[in-house]
Amino acid sequence: MRKSKRMEPVLRIAESREDQAAHAFAESRRQLGEHERQLVQLQGYRREYQMQIDNQAAAGITASRLVDTHRFLAQLDKAITQQQMVVEQATRLCNQKRQHWLMSRQKSQSLEKAKTRFETLERQHEDRREQKVLDELAQRRRTQDE
Q: Domains of the chain by range and CATH?
């Protein structure tokens, strides 16, 4: 069996792994985007709530309401901090998935190049063999014609 044919199953496996890595990377990017959107929503909600409280405080607010407000803002800040950590983890995971995909892609490309190189060498070998046969036939005809 030719080397180029023996490379085909190996190449198919590498391409399958590359596809899997690409899908995992795409999924991690989707999840990272979702986590970032949630963080932006929390930050926006906190800004809006702070503006409402500032407006109410200017008009006058009770002490108990002010304490409750600060408690709620502290909870929002805690949720924002936690979401920032989730985003950081998702970013690291996304970077890992990207690296894995790039390595898988590089391996697939290397195997494809090797297969192409084998095919080229096989064609050249076959062309030389055919040329040799043609040369021998031409030589026989010349000797028969003489």
A: 3-145 (1.10.287.1700)
